[in-house]
Every structure is written in structure tokens, then in C-alpha cells.
């Protein structure tokens, strides 16, 4: 094993600075990166890129009023990508010794079958915006301070009602440092904090009936997340308990098509699944999406303006730079019902002869980037939320979700409700047992008949999975009414 | 370090033992270390052209330490001596943050698996490693080409992928266990696309996977079946909302078995997060239902010679003729429930052990799959499911589903955009036919089976 810079000692000042940062044990500069990129292009690839990642994460779990687990993890590595036309060669290494990095570069180079090798352009730093403060990572805060946050959430959940029999609290924190160097001369470094608190409460009612409720939130923040009143640990503890207690009275959900009102915030999941994935450009480049070749045509009710925006301050889905070194943007995907843009990564942007839209994301250095959402939301409308509910004779009010899924090709999507209510004569009545909604994306968005003025972004808790890769995302929506969607309850309507 | 072509088990075991020793020296009262390495090859072709060639090897080191019944877990990919030393020190310090739990004790030495007498499960296949990127691309191309040639209605392709992973894992504890094993797993998937009359695209897939290369289905057969399954979806529509019998094919039924495991896992029981709390020894399914969890099947995807606590693995009869015989427990869950572990622990590289299924199998019944369908006047034959609608605490189940509508015992027309719902307890109790078509391609597996009645929501 050879090390190119054995004389450099690691910085001991901040324990959470990447070893590939300047002054680190494996410091990477433009010159060294150029050497690796040259190896990557050695077989005739037309583009190469290095993605260095250092990620330190911590997690705390409290159960049965006891801090049961304290966990810590470190991930460090380099991913090398080589493109030849639309084809990708990829390799990675966790060992940042120069010979191992060159070996990874040569492995990735195999995708190109030979021919002239272009020289990489010497990389220059890209100036990045700052959508999340480079504040001290929560990881550097003494553990005891964080344990107190868990205890506060736990106490609040159990104090909410004597029928709460259990509470579980988790706190996850992370700092991810990335360095991207491309053969066309871009060099970008970013430090991405991420924090998330989750509370789950179990209630027991008469006859031993049990129900669970969950609440959580976070974002690209440190412990300052908890300074917001709605984000205090107590607030999440009480909310989880409230849902668990409320659901003790849940009745069977109806089955069949009916009017549905979505509560503001997390209901943005519906947009994420119903249209978001279908507007990721890879599916459209390959003509496998239901939205293929529909640019400029109406795909939703004129009340709908759908945006993907990686620049929202401190939101879970925000980025200062995407994982291909491009800047994030506010991308209007659907404007007043008309399809306006896809979300692009580098490969698809080149295919469509467009600029990358800042949506090239990946789970880690072990993964190839692809078009992914950041924060996806429906812009507010003009209807008063109360009027929207009042306008429904019989329907369903969807408030909390455990997740959703979509089939990109045909646009069919589902999403799973964990808190919902029957609407009868314009009023919320009985809470409903867990139920699934199913619809077709292009179809459902044409059935949006009211959009509220009460926009809300999700409190950072969503993770999106695609092709086996997970990335943190945000979603958002105001109150929305959909004229008809299939509700998958057990009670067949007579 | 590369797992390909070289047996790294002894090397990894030595690292694990060294880490455990360092943790003891750093002040831990007990320590467990899990070390893994692996290599992956993943290629994809689309419309005959290579789209991705990914090749890499990786490794990781995990540690759990106990300090006076306080626990911490940690993982790293930094194997340098300095890196390991700091990693161990940090983990021991982190343990002081957690609160004592009297159940945080390593297993007694007489309970441990005998490392010198581990069962030989034939999980490793040299031949699987001989497939290089070029050969893998050729397999994927053959599969995709077969799908595209099979039917003119196949108009597009999501591509075909060939993947292989190979790796070794070693586990050592200060309680006296040290062992290692290795395995390979190869797979091929083909995903054709059709254009439907209403402008919708219809996608489908078929796949093959096995630890041993010679057990993979032929690429052309995979492509052909993928095409057939996709073309069959043309013209799919919503059914009327109704109560009806539902037949699950083995692909769809697997998801129900995974959910069943989630509510008999020891961790869900002591957390009171299962509707099956207090139901051991009682009927939880119809008498046609027998489920085993068997980690000792040679060459099977979910097999393991010892568990995540270092205990011997064993075949557990979980449901016998509809009666729940045992929950599946790791050591901690077992202690919580005042019993012995069933050898069902799994642990991720930097985590606590938890109860996990191995080869979790609904045993084959006597019925022919065709007869199961033929016995339905009007019902739903489900081939795929979507979504996550399941509440383990209450058993309320509601998911998106697609497949075929059954009329007078025949698959009459394709269905999409439907949901299925039932209480999970009633669902399992009302299974009235179990097929004889069981294959062990996946760790969770079952044959075709039929539920007497569920709510199908559509129009």
C-alpha cells in the first residue's frame, strides 16, 4: 500500500472533518484529483467524476424510559464514475490510498472500449449557496444534552394520557461532507447536517385494544431544530400520544371511490408519488414514464402548480450542491396544470439538451447518481381550508401517512394513511382505521377541485427510495380536495 | 482487500477477535465484533446496449460494547490500526451515555454455537465468481432480447440486470465465540414494457436468483416469462368494489408472509406492537397453514450457520396446522419474554441484534394452483401488491394490488388500481386452499394460496 502524503497528520481540532479535506490524512486537491480523473478517462470515456464522502452518524434510542442504545457510525469512501454516451462505469473504494483510488478509476474506465482519451480540465471550486447554516454539528454536542431531549419527549408522551402504555423515542444525527471533482472542471465541497427525532406511542383502551401513533421531524439543522415551538420534543411526544389515543376509537374505513380532502403538509407524499417520480427525467429519457412526450400539455387541473425546490432553507430535502456538482434550483414541474419541466441529472440533461436542474442525487459513494426529488410541493391556492372540508357531503380527510409507492410506468400509486377521518355533511366525524388510497397520478391530478391557501412543508421526516437508493426529501401541500379516489377500506358501501 | 477468489474468513475472524480484545483493554466488560467484506458486480443493459457496469469490493467493521450493562454500537470502514483504536475508544466512551439494562449480558458459553462444528450449508459457489462483466452483460442481453422477441406487443424495456454479490462475515465475542462463513448470490431480472390502448404503459418483470450459478434459470426463459407476464397486463382496469375470494400467487403472497413474520418476531411481542401478543399456543391461521423458519437448508438464500448472538441456528416450527407454536426470538427478546432464544438473531454491522427470519416458509399444501383458481366463481387473482398499509398493533391491512379478475374459475381480465383489505388475523384464519407450487428462490417463500374473503376496492 502506498500513501501519497504520509507526512500529513490528521487534524485533531474537529473530530468531524473529512480526512480528504485540506489538512486531513488523505487531503485531496485539484492536482491529485486530476491524476485520478486522468486514469478514469484512460480508456476513452467522455466524462468522469469523483465523489468523496465522509459521513458520521449517531443515534440514540429510548425505550421503557431507558436510553437503551447509543450508536455511532463512520462511512468514508470514494466513488468514481465514467460516462461513455449514456453508459456508466462505476467503482468505489473505502481505502483512500492513491493506488486504491487509481484502481477504482481504472475499473470504472472499463465501460469505454478504448479510443482517444481526453484530458480532464483542471478543476476550479464552484461557489456554493448556503441553504443550511454551517453551524456546529449536533454530533459535537455532549451526549447528555441530547439524552435530555429524548427524555423530554418520552415524558410528554406518557404524561399525555394514562392509557399510554409505551413510548419509544429515537434521535438520529448526521454530518456528511462531500467533495465532488469532475473532468469538466468543477470542484465542490459541502457539509450537510441532518437531524431527526421520532416518537412512537402505544395506547391501550378497554378490552386490551391497542393502537399506536407516531410523530417526528427534523431537517438540515443541528440542535437548533428543537428551538422551534412546534418542534420541541414535548410537541412530538404529545402528538404521537394524541394519535394513539384518538385511534382507539377508530372505526372501519369505507371501501370504494369517494371525495378525499388532504390535510396540509405531509400529504405532499401524494404529489411525490403521483407525479414526482414520473417527472424524473431518466424515466422520460427511456420513454418508460406515463409523462413521456407530454411536455407543454395539460397533465393536471389548472389549480395545480407543482414545484421541486432544493433551495428551501434548512429543509430535509435541501442541498447546496447536488451529488454531481450542480447547483440546486427551484424547478416548476407543472404550471397551472401544464407539464413544464422534468427533473434532470447530467445524463438526462444532455439527452434533452438542457441544463442539469440540480436533481442528480445518490445515497452514498457506493451508488450512481440519478434524477431525484429534493423538496416537492404544490403551491397554495385561494380556497379557505375550512370551506374545503365544509363542501364535502361524504368523504375522507387524510391527515397522517406512513408512506407511499408508485409504479412509474402506468402512474398507479398508493399511499397509506395512519390518521384519517370520515367527513359527513362537511364535518370531520369518526376516526378511521389504517387505510390505503390508490389512484393513478395523471388521473388524480385532473380531479383536484380545490386548493387551500394554507401551505405547509413537511417537518423533515421523509426518506425516498428509488432503485434501492434512499435519499432524504421534503414534501409539502396546502389543503387539497380530490373529487374521486379509491379508498381501500373494509366496509363496502351499500 | 477483495473477497473475490480468495477465502478471507480467517483474516476477518482475526480482525474481529482483535477488536474484541482491544475493547476489553479499553475498559469494556464485554464486546462483540462483526466484520464483513464483499464484492459486487452489477451490470445493466437496455435496448441491447450496456447502461451500467459497476464493480467494487468493500468492507466494514461493527462493534457492540457493554460497560456495566450499558451498551453502545458502532461501525466504521476504516481498518487502519490507528482508526480501529480510536473507533474502539469512542465506542467504549459512548456506552457510558446509555442506561444500565440488566438484560445486557452475553450468552452463557454453553449456549454458544460450536465454531469448530458449524453446519456446512454450501452457501459459496466458485463458479458464480467466474462470471465477469462481459459474461454478465451477455446474460442480461440474452434475457432482454428474448423478452423483446417474444411478443410484438412488447414495445419498450426498463432493461435487464445481472448482479452478483460475494462476501464473508466473521463474528467474535468476549464470551468465547468466534466464527465465520461466506456466501455468493447471483440474480438476473428482465423488465419489459408494453404500451396499452389508453396510453398507459404496462410494465412487468421476471427474475431468477440463486446462491449457486447452476441453479439460475436460463436467461432466455426468464425473458420469455417476463414478456408473458407483462403482455398479460394489457387492458387492465379497476374492478367493482366488493367482497370476494382472493388468490395470491407466490410473488404476491410473499409480502403477506413477511408481514406475518413481523408480528411473531420477539421484538414486536415484548414491545406489545403485535396483534399476536398472548396468542402463542392458540389458533392464528386456518389448519391448512404450516410455517417453518429454517436457517439450515443447504444452498438456500436465507441460511446461516450461527445467529447474530453467536448461538446455533435451528429449524423452528412456527405455525403448525394453524396454531402458533413459537415466537421467533433473539437473545434479548427471549430474555424480555422470560424464555430461551430460538437462534433467530440477526445483526447489522453497527447495530443491536434483533429477531429476523431466515428461510421463512409457508409449507406446500395439496392443491394444484389451477384448481385453486378453478374453485372461484368470482374473485381476484393477485400477482403484485403496492404500498405499506399494515398496522401490526391492530392487524389492519390495506394495500394496493394488481392481477386478474377471476370469473367462473378462469382468469378473465387484468386488474389494476385495486386495493385489498382485511384484518390480518381474519385473513390468515380464512385461508381455504394452499398450493403445491413452493420454490425456494427467496428467503421468504410460499406457494399459491387462497383467502376465502377480503374487501376489494376499485370503482
Describe the overall structure:
By secondary structure, chain A is of the alpha+beta class. Chain A has nine helices and 24 strands. Chain A has helices at 30-40, 98-109, 143-159, 233-247, 268-276, 281-285, 346-352, 385-390, 441-446, and strands at residues 47-63, 66-84, 87-93, 124-125, 164-182, 186-204, 210-219, 254-262, 306-309, 330-335, 338-339, 360-361, 370-371, 375-378, 394-406, 412-424, 427-432, 435-440, 448-451, 456-457, 462-466, 469-477, 480-488, 491-492. In chain A, the strands form four sheets. In chain A, strands 1, 2, 3, 4, 5, 6 and 7 form a seven-stranded mixed sheet that branches. In chain A, strands 9, 10, 11, 14, 20, 21 and 22 form a seven-stranded mixed sheet that branches. In chain A, a hairpin with a 5-residue loop joins strand 15 and strand 16. The longest helix of chain A is centred in the first third of the chain and has 17 residues, at 143-159. The N and C termini of chain A lie far apart (74 Å). Chain B is 23% helix and 36% strand. In chain B, helix 4 (133-150) packs parallel to helix 5 (219-231). Chain B contains ten helices and 21 strands. Chain B has helices at residues 9-25, 81-95, 126-129, 133-150, 219-231, 250-264, 266-270, 331-336, 369-374, 424-429, and strands at 30-46, 49-67, 70-76, 154-173, 178-195, 201-203, 206-210, 242-248, 291-293, 316-320, 323-324, 345-346, 354-355, 360-362, 378-386, 390-391, 396-407, 410-423, 431-434, 444-445, 449-457. The model of chain B has no long low-confidence stretch (mean pLDDT 94). Chain B has 459 residues and is α+β, with helices and mostly antiparallel strands. In chain B, strand 4 (154-173) and strand 5 form a beta hairpin. At the A-B interface, strand 2, strand 3, helix 3, strand 5 and strand 7 of A face strand 2, strand 3, helix 2, strand 6 and strand 16 of B.
